[in-house]
Write a structure and sequence with these properties.
By secondary structure, the protein is mainly alpha-helical. The protein has a domain at about 30-95. Helices cover about 60% and strands about 5% of the residues. The protein is built from 5 helices and 2 strands. A two-stranded antiparallel sheet has the order 1-2. The longest helix is centred in the middle third of the chain and has 14 residues, at about 30-45. It is globular and about 40 Å long. The chain starts with a helix and ends with a helix. About 15% of the residues are buried.
Length: about 100
């Protein structure tokens, strides 16, 4: 995904080291990856929505993201939509 310089600077500042043996590689943080995926779903190509939504669901599950946390809900509202947040919440918590 292409981002402007200001966003790229934020992504780099919050990046995390890669796995052992690739520690010189910087990876986007989980929060920023979720934000990018939500933004892509909200504004992206319709052919990618299912893939990106599936990625969000798996990221939430694999990382045990607490979707009830105010900062996570805010992330979804800012970069995605309320509908996306509610669907992910229902699919990952059964609520």
């Amino acid at each position: 995904m292409m981002v402007n310089d200001e966003t790229f600077t934020k992504l780099v500042a919050d990046s995390v080291p890669g796995p052992p043996g690739l520690s010189e590689v910087k990876l986007v943080s989980l929060r920023h990856l979720l934000a990018l995926k939500c933004h892509a779903i909200k504004n992206g190509h319709s052919g990618r929505i299912v893939k990106d939504a599936d990625d969000v669901i798996h990221l939430v599950q694999a990382n045990r993201v607490d979707l009830t946390a105010p900062d996570i809900r805010e992330l979804f509202m800012k970069h995605g939509t309320k509908e996306l947040y509610e669907k992910v919440r229902r699919l990952t918590t059964g609520a």
